[in-house]
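# nightly structure sweep
# worker-07 picked up a monomer target from the shared queue
# config: single-sequence mode, recycle default, output format = structure tokens
# input follows
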Amino acid sequence: MLRLLSIEIIKLKKNRQFLILTIILILSFFGLNYIVSEIFTKEAANILHISRWNAVAFINGFSFTIPAMIIIMHTCSEYTYRTGRQNIIDGLTRKQYVATKFVMVVALALFTTILVFLFAFIFGIFSNIEFNFEALKYIVYYFIQSLVYLVLAFTLALFLKRAILSLSIFIVYSLIIDNYLDSKFNKIIGGLLPLSSCDHLIPMPFSGGIEWLNYSSKPEYVYLIFTCIYLCLFCFACFYRYEKQDL
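# output follows
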């Protein structure tokens, strides 16, 4: 696994777009967690009965587009510059090549999760807020959520091979279509779509129990099961696609 990750690091370390997007990603996490620290006080937590970790995980979820851009642009550039074909010529099997991308996706999801945790912890210390470490499950759920979004981004890039098209579909689906279908057909598929299944692991904070903001009430394990199913389906689709497509 480390060998596969090192291959991706070699490709990315001199990529200016990757460095710029990484800096933007770090700054966005800094800004989002600063906002949480400003509006999330101990009094607010007691009144609304919510965890700071819940608020942190939910609000930082709005930055998934940036790491998705990294995955999409890097994957599509492999087709543009034929580096994927060169990796196969140099000895990687097709399955190993796709595996390197999944290793990168997991590493990026883990990196964003660590950033979220560190910024939330640091701002929490300066805000003199007591942490409920039992609610750290929301950070784990954030990692799972990040993984789903990035695997979807990679799947789109692998199938479409065009960065702008892949990113456009990702943004439209993640921000509009998935949420619309989830709310429109709540009684049938509420919370069980590819992105909504992981989104519902992290409930919306500050909702005050308003029913229309918490319309899906399935147990957490149901969302986890469907999230794992979608991850497996995405992975299978990617391996199958790359085995069959022309390089």
